[in-house]
Amino acid sequence: MEIMFIPWESVEAKMLLQKCVVVLICVSLFWKIIRYMCDLLKVEKEPITILITGQIGYALVPMIARGAMLGPDQPVILHMLDIEPAAESLKGVKMELVDAAFPLLKADVVEACKDVNIAVMVGGFPRKEGMERKDVMSKNVSIYKAQASALEQHAARDCKVLVVANPANTNALILKEYAPSIPEKNITCLTRLDHNRALGQISEKLNVHVGDVKNVIIWGNHSSTQYPDVNHATIATGNGETPVRQAVNDDNWLNNEFISVVQQRGAAIIKARKLSSALSAASSACDHIRDWVLGTPKGTWVSMGVYSDGSYGIQSGLIYSFPVTCEKGEWKIVQGLKIDEFSREKMDNTAQELIEEKSLAKSCLT
Ligand code: LMR
């Protein structure tokens, strides 16, 4: 038998090394077990049911299904509703949704309005080239009266409604009338599209990233009388924030061309595409709901058409676009902004158009 002599230091070193390896293996095993347990215990969020009506739904649905509206871990159930002639094409959209294999999408085949948590009302008679929103009023008020009644009967009591179809503010008002059990603060219309358009125009003018521009305001109606206001808007620079008016340094452009480009953008798109905006409308509808549900970033406001409470001297009882901040699923009108004479006139002008639309809508319904 041969006995080898191993020096004491070397035995110590080997044992230490062995101990380290054992400890590392234990830690890694322990970590794997913890992760496995977490996966087993992971509670999936309850799905949110979203109703989408109308033709921009085709652009909107993939954005929602990818998590652009409610976040990447929020399962959704989509209910899609369209007018009878579109029923066949809706079947095609349903097939495509299955084929796209969106992991957040849960299948459901109940009636369109049943237990809906969020309703994006895009459906309506579309505006064609050369038509003003008022021209489509009589066709749309009856559609909205019917859809409001369906929501009233079947939707979740705290359902959040976004009206996109034109005349969006007045359609939202009709919906409010005929779905009285949905709280008025839950009925809104889309002016985020105009808000984003205003941000886009400023970013192009200044050649800055659109994400560095914030706090423009769309006041009033989603129509050619809306007032895109940059008096409180800023751009982020290396040294903090600079007022947009100062950065642009061209009041003539801001008070004229900028305003009319934003006001007429929808009509310009219809002229070019022979169809109304779909991609940007869908994307801004996602922005509207996302900020409403998940909150606006600190120090930033957005524009939403909401039920007027008399803020800024705007007659209550209109759905009017205001600057709002959102937190915990609730919007709040930004208060205390200074309004100059130029703005006052434009804000009142668009309010006046809404008052007229409201009485026209009422007359269409009687
Ligand atoms: C838009 O602004 O692009 C849409 O509301 C379409 C329209 O009718 O103006």
TrEMBL record:
Domain Lactate/malate dehydrogenase N-terminal: 52-187
Domain Lactate/malate dehydrogenase C-terminal: 191-360
PROSITE patterns in the cross-refs: MDH
Transmembrane segments: 16-34
Chain residues that bind substrate: 127, 133, 166, 197
Keyword field contains NAD: yes
Residue numbers binding NAD(+): 82, 140, 164-166
Molecular function GO terms recorded: L-malate dehydrogenase (NAD+) activity
Gene3D superfamilies reported in the protein's UniProt record: Lactate dehydrogenase/glycoside hydrolase, family 4, C-terminal, NAD(P)-binding Rossmann-like Domain
First-tier enzyme category under EC: oxidoreductase
Coiled coil: none
Keywords associated with the record: Membrane, NAD, Oxidoreductase, Transmembrane, Transmembrane helix, Tricarboxylic acid cycle
Active site: 222 (proton acceptor)
Classification via Pfam families: Ldh_1_C, Ldh_1_N
Reaction equations catalysed: (S)-malate + NAD(+) = oxaloacetate + NADH + H(+)
A biological process term (GO) from this entry: tricarboxylic acid cycle
UniProt-listed SUPFAM superfamilies: LDH C-terminal domain-like, NAD(P)-binding Rossmann-fold domains
InterPro entries referenced in this protein's UniProt entry, alphabetically: L-lactate/malate_DH, Lactate/malate_DH_C, Lactate/malate_DH_N, Lactate_DH/Glyco_Ohase_4_C, Malate_DH_AS, Malate_DH_NAD-dep_euk, Malate_DH_type2, NAD(P)-bd_dom_sf
Family from the record: Belongs to the LDH/MDH superfamily. MDH type 2 family.
Protein name in the entry: Malate dehydrogenase
Highest classification ranks of the organism: Eukaryota, Viridiplantae, Streptophyta, Embryophyta, Tracheophyta
